[in-house]
């Protein structure tokens, strides 16, 4: 098990904290339904329109190299949304058997047309696959959407369907009160949150053997819009 940032090539995005805080309670309730408004509604409600733009291509390549994946291997993206990373896995490594799972009926019905038949609707707590099915499993921004006890169960499910040590879990985290405030202002769907140390305790409790990383939202003036800038 090791901490490694395989998402380092994901582009930074502008986060309008002020706008998202308005009507946040309603936005959170709607976001947790994971329906159309979350993926293709306003930025305050979620993604603000989730469309394919190729941003996952270099990340797919990094995952393939990290796990030494090759044609014929099987990889699963849990929380795949519309399956853009699944598509890029298949494009970067032709012959790789890539699949995605998401809780959202809307997302899996509106997946990229290139990956018809490769997306499954399901829940991370009950993955519909036999033990050791996949040569690698990727799980980005999903586990923290569960209660603490469910987080432990979800990590165990990931390990169950993956070959030993061949998984990658990423969650949001914070290191101090300033970062925690920013986290609470921005993140809509998280049920469980804490410091990297808190998450390491969960991984240890689940006897997790794969890799992991924490995304920390930082107060970077270049990527923060204030009320005066609207």
Short description:
The protein has helices at 17-21, 24-31, 36-40, 57-66, 84-92, 105-109, 148-161, 177-186, 196-205; strands spanning 2-3, 74-78, 97-102, 119-121, 136-140, 167-173, 211-216. The protein has one domain: 3-Layer(aba) Sandwich (Rossmann fold). It is built from nine helices and seven strands.
Note the gap between the termini: 43 Å
Extract low-pLDDT stretches.
222-230
User: What's the story with the biggest beta sheet?
Assistant: 7 strands, parallel
Number of domains: 1
CATH superfamily: Vaccinia Virus protein VP39
Strand order of the largest sheet: 1-7-6-5-2-3-4
Outline, from the CA principal axes?
Answer: globular
Supply the CATH class: Alpha Beta
Rg over CA atoms, rounded to whole Å, is 17 Å
Order of helices and strands: EHHHHEHEHEEHEHHE
Round the mean pLDDT to the nearest integer and report it: 90
- What is the count of β-strands? 7
Q: How many H/I helical runs? A: 9
At CATH level 3, the topology is Rossmann fold
In percent, how helical is the residue content?
25-40%
- Beta content: 5-15%
């Amino acid at each position: 098990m090791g901490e490694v940032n395989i998402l380092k090539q994901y582009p930074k995005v502008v986060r309008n904290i002020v706008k998202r805080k308005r009507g946040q309670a309603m936005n959170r309730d709607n976001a947790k339904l994971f329906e159309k408004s979350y993926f293709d509604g306003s930025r305050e409600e979620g993604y603000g329109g989730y469309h394919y733009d190729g941003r996952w291509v270099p990340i797919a390549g990094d995952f393939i190299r990290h796990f030494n994946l090759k044609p014929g291997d099987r990889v699963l993206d849990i929380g795949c949304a519309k399956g853009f990373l699944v598509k890029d896995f298949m494009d970067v490594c032709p012959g790789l058997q890539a699949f995605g799972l998401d809780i959202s009926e809307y997302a899996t019905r509106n997946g990229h047309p290139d990956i018809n038949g490769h997306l499954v609707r399901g829940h991370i707590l009950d993955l519909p696959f036999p033990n050791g099915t996949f040569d690698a499993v990727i799980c980005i921004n999903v586990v923290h959407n569960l209660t603490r006890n469910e987080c432990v169960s979800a990590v165990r499910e990931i390990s169950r369907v993956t070959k030993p040590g061949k998984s990658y879990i990423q969650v949001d985290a914070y290191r101090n009160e300033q970062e925690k405030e920013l986290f609470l202002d921005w993140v809509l769907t998280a049920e469980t949150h804490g410091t990297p140390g808190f998450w390491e305790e969960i991984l240890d409790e689940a006897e997790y053997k794969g890799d992991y990383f924490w995304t920390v939202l930082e107060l970077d003036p270049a990527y923060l819009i204030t009320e005066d800038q609207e």
